[in-house]
Design goal:
The structure is a homodimer. Chain A is α/β, with parallel strands linked by helices. Chain A has three domains: about 15-70, lambda repressor-like DNA-binding domains (434 Repressor (Amino-terminal Domain)); about 75-155 and about 305-330, Rossmann fold (3-Layer(aba) Sandwich); about 165-295, Rossmann fold. Chain A is about 40% helix and about 15% strand. The first copy, chain A, is built from 15 helices and eleven strands. The first copy, chain A, has helices at about 15-25, 30-35, 45-55, 60-70, 85-100, 120-125, 140-150, 165-180, 195-200, 200-205, 210-215, 230-245, 260-270, 290-295, 300-320; strands at about 75-80, 105-110, 130-135, 155, 185-190, 220-225, 250-255, 280-285, 295-300, 330-335, 350-355. In chain A, helix 1 (about 15-25) packs across helix 3, helix 2 (about 30-35) crosses helix 3 (about 45-55) and helix 5 (about 85-100) runs parallel beside helix 15 (about 300-320). The termini of chain A are far apart. Chains A and B meet through helix 4, helix 5, strand 2, helix 6 and helix 12 of A and helix 4, helix 5, strand 2, helix 6 and helix 12 of B. Chain B binds a DNA duplex through helix 2 and helix 4.
DNA sequence: CTGAAAGCGCTAACAA
DNA sequence: TTGTTAGCGCTTTCAG
């Protein structure tokens, strides 16, 4: 005798592989092969199974398949923020690459970059097969070390503003362009995301390019843009501050982000400066902003690079070989309307670094 | 006799619950309880187990736990893009809310909004327990229908530009502000993401507010900004196009996004218009851009709303109750420097809708 | 308070 | 070509 009527807990207990096997009159093993497109299944059998699975709305459970295979077919994308176009573009690029290969994307949004020495929970729980780390400074030394020890495939993508050579490379490209135009007094605006230590190499370091700067009598001022007011107002203030300095003024500004470039542009226009006649401006990131404003910029192709990283990761996972580093990337210069030769000749020849803190 | 020596396949087969149980001299059941903080474990036992687990670097496998419990402790966040600040902010808001509760976030980045009538694979594979849908137009009717049928908890968040009442509500707020300032000739710029059908209600629909507009003799022009050149240049062009129209010109513009507001601002300034004396501008989204440019704007608090949605979803999941709709949201107006009373009095009284297509 | 044992749903040898 | 049989690692009654 059946127990007194009770409502079922769930409406649709979702068909399992056994249901399909039973309906098709085959074993679960065959269903599994058929559905995954593996060989050793007769064509008619496969067709029938597929139809039945379709009718039953069957899809393998990720948990069960993951337990059995040890693979989750999902990769973790580590980022510290989505507020910068370069980052959200990178996530989007990765998302597309992964979707193309039927992998899932688990977003590992870390609160404060490298706040904890622990690896994210999703990694420890093996919810992801591999990690795509966006920005060289996103994970701390210890975390990267643990990654290497754990043997989890991972790929780190250099993104602007992340204690990375990317900044140096991009800034170098911009500077080269300006120097070629005849500028000898430059300013480089970068934000709190940038690594002062690395960047300052540009002004005082021992690199070949740096010494070349000195020899050529080029003056480069580094302006650290800080403050919680957002990149645009902060860089406006920083620009004002720079302009209030005694002595000669730079004839060109390199900005570490589009937002900063906009801030400088707005403030310069407010001061009545003509762009590029009075001041050349170079932006970075290659997002809509610079394009729209007709600003010359160094672009990073974050989305494309993230997609490449993802692909390289997948190749490593499926081929069971090591992660291959994609072709070396170099920043690209897009010359638009915001750069031109300076109005006057060279000015001073003393390299200097100034700090320009904004309130808040 | 043991088989001939062979190298192990993996370096660190990662400790399992059995390893911990063995090392602690207890059963796996006890380890499971201890680690998850469940009752019925003696304090000393619990402590010992925790220490051993720590030493062994044990973390439960997500797949195994998922299989056993039927829950994945991860939710899917559905979005069609990350390129708009409102969207990436929403994702970030959701990420933080989920991280606070130790849930994982699977990013379901759909290619073309509602391109396929199918639910995303991750949903069918039960890789996620619930869905947070960003933007009312992100999922198609059929998909939403399937969601409801499948009983998967889901929450849809209205975001600007997504065939949603949000647009109407926000635009209404902006318009009310402008009318109160004395404007009688307005233009509303919106993009391809916006739903023309809904929006046009503002100009010709039967709503109380709409008729009020008519009665008050307010003229509202709807400008559809299109073109693949990005929101900023497109809206510049659209503004130029609008300004080239014969007849009276609007004294205020409402923009459906920050980017459009910037485009209008730039183009207006290029035409020598003073903001807000000659033209009032209202932006939307409340992102850095409007704040930085001192633009009056209607803000959506996407991040906060997404976080609320996530919380409501988690409450439903854990409490096993239905998804509760959070408190009704209404767009908020932040008055800054870009709006003021019109220089001249009312102009015309004919409502009209113009299309302003930009090339490409 | 603790343990034994039966799965969760699928995959992967190995047989047939 | 197909089926049988073990698990995968954890959770969860139900006894003890």
């Amino acid at each position: 005798m059946l127990p007194a009527g009770r409502t079922t807990r769930t409406r649709h207990p979702k068909a399992s592989i056994e249901d399909v096997a039973a309906a098709a009159g085959v074993s679960t093993a065959t269903v599994s092969r058929a559905i995954r497109g593996l060989p050793r299944v007769a064509q008619p059998t496969r067709t029938r199974i597929l139809e039945i699975a379709q009718a039953l709305g069957y899809t393998a459970s990720a948990s069960a398949a993951g337990l059995a295979t040890g693979k989750t077919r999902s990769i973790g994308v580590v980022t510290s923020s989505l507020r910068y176009p370069a980052y959200s573009a990178a996530v989007e690029g990765a998302a597309q690459a992964l979707r193309d290969r039927d992998y899932s994307l688990v977003l590992l949004h870390l609160p404060h970059p490298s706040a904890s020495p622990q690896l994210p929970t999703d990694v420890n729980m093996r919810r992801v097969d591999a990690l795509l780390v966006l920005g060289a400074g996103t994970l701390g030394k210890e975390q990267i070390g643990q990654l290497q020890r754990s043997g989890i495939p991972h790929f780190v993508i250099g993104l602007p503003g992340t204690q990375d050579d990317v900044d140096v490379a991009a800034a170098t490209t911009a500077i080269r362009h300006l120097v070629q135009l005849g500028h000898t007094d430059l300013a480089f605006f970068h934000g709190r995301l940038a690594a002062a230590s690395r960047i300052s190499l540009l002004a005082a370091g021992p690199g070949p390019w740096t010494s070349a700067l000195h020899e050529a009598g080029i003056k480069l001022r580094e302006v650290r843009v800080e403050g919680g007011a957002g990149a645009i107002p902060s860089s406006r203030k920083a620009f004002s501050c720079l302009w209030a300095q005694p002595g000669s003024l730079p004839t060109a500004v390199v900005c570490a982000s589009d937002e900063m470039a906009l801030g400088v542009l707005l403030e310069a226009e407010r001061k009545g400066l003509k762009i590029p006649a009075d001041l050349s401006i170079v932006g970075m990131d290659g997002q809509d902003l610079c394009e729209s404003l007709e600003l010359t910029a160094v672009i990073h192709y974050s989305a494309r690079r993230a997609a490449q990283g993802a692909q390289s990761l997948l190749a490593a996972l499926e081929g069971d070989r090591d992660v291959t580093t994609p072709a070396v990337w170099s920043p690209e210069l897009v010359v638009r309307q915001s750069t031109a030769a300076p109005r006057n000749g060279p000015t001073s020849t003393v390299a200097a670094t100034i700090e320009c803190r904004t309130s808040t």
